[in-house]
Design brief:
By secondary structure, this protein is an alpha/beta fold. The chain contains 13 helices and eleven strands.
Length: about 300
């Protein structure tokens, strides 16, 4: 039998072709992950092809995940709760602490806190971290959840509704909050810093089974980028201002308000996720019985 040996150059070419044939498809929201990863240099020299798709909020992103058009994406714990309750086969594989949610109002509205929201119209995205914030703030203020009227719309349309007077308040996140404060003079009535939630990298069960190595690499790069962003807010803000075409003051406010420090403690991740589930269950928006462990792949956290 004649044995054929590949030349070193041909072998390297084949290995390179094989690596490039691997692709990870990720959905992002308003520069949630891509901006900080680019600014931190974590998207350089990737050993696989990375394709990004931008979404205005979590709902369409989760629909794309559920239909396996994406491998992974960035969403909050509230939307993940809704998706899992509806049967989506996705899991959280990385978590960061998110403090950038807020309920904003017009300057002369007279609304100063959660108690003042009673009887008001609040625009937000259904099942979002914004709605989650409203429900938790009302509970803390001992105000019934049904004492407010939710107007469900997109983040951009919500702030327009506030400007026109169609609603009394908007429950949203960054950069919408900082942009409304800087550009329209709106005020924060309830700050999300008092109600920490999780910001997740989630992946489909299919991707976890078929692309685990790629997900693990991308996950670690995201963790490093998040840590860099917390340590270098000015540099991160300068980068994100260019990526998202934001005014520099809005970009800096976004970065400082969000925090997005990675959470390595799985117990904290479970606790914050269960809180989101319980909030929507308590108000009848999702059926009882859903547990945080069903939404989290703990094996990824164990590898940190």
């Amino acid at each position: 039998m004649k044995i054929r040996y590949l030349s070193l150059s041909l072998m390297l070419a084949l290995l390179s072709t094989s690596a490039l044939s691997a692709e990870l498809i990720v959905g992002d929201q308003k520069g949630n992950a891509r901006a900080v990863m680019e600014a931190a240099g974590q998207l350089e020299n990737l050993p696989y092809k990375l394709s990004w798709y931008e979404f205005p909020n979590a709902a369409p992103l989760l629909e794309s995940l559920n239909s396996n058009h994406l491998d992974a994406g960035l969403v909050g714990d509230g939307p993940l709760s809704f998706a899992a309750a509806a049967g989506a086969e996705i899991k959280a594989i990385q978590a960061s602490q998110y403090l950038g949610n807020a309920i904003i109002v017009k300057k002369r509205s007279g609304i100063k806190n959660a108690a003042d929201l009673k009887g008001k119209k609040i625009a937000t995205v259904k099942g979002s971290s914004g709605q989650n914030l409203v429900l938790n703030a009302l509970k803390q203020a001992n105000i019934p959840a049904d004492s407010v009227s939710f107007i469900f719309t997109t983040p951009a349309e919500a702030t327009l509704a506030l400007d026109s007077g169609a609603v009394d308040a908007v429950a949203s996140w960054e950069p919408y909050v900082s942009f409304a404060v800087a550009q329209s003079g709106d005020q924060i009535a309830v700050d999300g810093r008092a109600f920490p939630v999780s910001n997740y990298l989630v992946a489909t069960d299919t991707a976890i089974a078929d692309k685990r190595d790629l997900l693990q690499d991308f996950r670690q790069r995201l963790v490093l980028a998040r840590e860099w962003g917390v340590a270098h807010p000015e540099q991160y803000a300068a980068g994100i201002a260019k990526v998202l075409r934001l005014p520099e003051n809005v970009a800096l406010s976004k970065v400082q308000r969000e925090n997005n420090a990675p959470i390595s403690d799985i117990a904290t991740v479970r606790s914050q996720q269960q809180n989101a589930i319980d909030t929507f269950t308590r108000t009848g928006l999702i059926k009882p019985g859903l547990k945080a462990d069903q939404l989290i792949d703990a094996s990824f956290f164990a590898q940190q």
